[in-house]
Amino acid sequence: MTCPPELLSLLRDPVGREPLTVDGTDLVNQTSGRRYPITDGIPALISPTELGPQNRKFRRMYDRLAPIYDLGLTLGNLFCRGKLAALRRQIATMLALKPGDRLLYTSVGTGADLLYLAEQVDLRSIEWIGLDLSRGMLRRCQARLRSLGGTAMLVQANAECLPLADRSFDVVLQVGGINFFDHPAAATEEMVRVSKDGARILIADETNKVVRQSYRKNPLTRAYFQDTPDAADPRRWVPPGAREVQYEEVFDGRGYLLSFRPPVS
Ligand SMILES: C[S@@+](CC[C@H](N)C(=O)[O-])C[C@H]1O[C@@H](n2cnc3c(N)ncnc32)[C@H](O)[C@@H]1O
After folding, report:
1. Nearest C-alpha to atom 3 of ligand 1 is from which residue?
2. pLDDT tens column, 207-235
């Protein structure tokens, strides 16, 4: 997989946000000399000190779960009689994507949402970046991407410290994971920073109900969630001055959808 030049130009050093240039199989900050590798077509833009304890723990968890993640989604969707698929479809519709848009999907995971996005807009008519902390999840997403084509790039990075240029995206989507970031409010600020004026930001995740009833009991995940405090109310992450703020609990109170437009700058 090669990185499209129009998207490569949006990448920035996660430390200081200076532009990067390609040098062989690395991205290089010409000012500091810092280098970041591109492995199998996926740049890894993570500085050595930026990850907190939660980031490290959940990166480990998702690297381990990646091979069975999609199977888990399929079974989960069957178990709840298609409600998960309906929710993904609702999210895709809310984004109102149109040809020419540039989309950032933070925590893209294995790309399970791509098929639902493709029902709304031809993915070859938009540019998009999928970003995730777990290389295992990104490798799965890469396999999906091959069949979809289009101007797309995957980046391994921390959503709390986006290695991306200011004001670059028309739509920013974050589904799952954010409840257990070390700094979810900082991640939301980052989404705002990289959004163009008038962009739409949509954040979705489970509520604490699911964490208590499922993740802290499931043998595959309980070790990771035992000492994890309940997540904060996501509405606290919305910056002052944000417009069209909408918050909705969905799926029998098991999930939430939070959407807004960034404050006018
Ligand atoms: C529940 S999965 C959701 C994946 C996908 N969005 C979906 O809906 O299937 C959460 C994702 O968040 C990613 N993640 C966790 N912490 C992250 C961080 N700090 N920055 C970027 N991605 C992160 C995980 O690697 C994982 O792929």
Report:
1. 176
2. 988 777 777 788 877 877 777 778 789 99
Task: Tell how far the Cα of 132 is from the centroid of ligand 1, in angstroms.
Answer: 6
Residue nearest to atom 1 of ligand 1 (CA): 176
Atom of ligand 1 nearest to the CA of 158: 20
Residues in the chain: 265
Q: What is the pTM of this model?
A: 0.94
For 23-80, what is each residue's pLDDT tens digit?
999 999 999 999 999 999 999 999 989 999 999 999 999 999 999 999 999 999 999 9
The number of distinct structural domains making up the chain is: 1
Tell me which residue range forms the domain holding 95. Answer: 45-261
**What is the distance between the alpha carbons of residues 21 and 11, in angstroms, rounded to a whole number?**
9
Q: Is residue 38 part of a domain?
A: no
Q: What is the CATH number of the domain that holds 189?
A: 3.40.50.150
CA of 177 to the centre of ligand 1 (A): 5
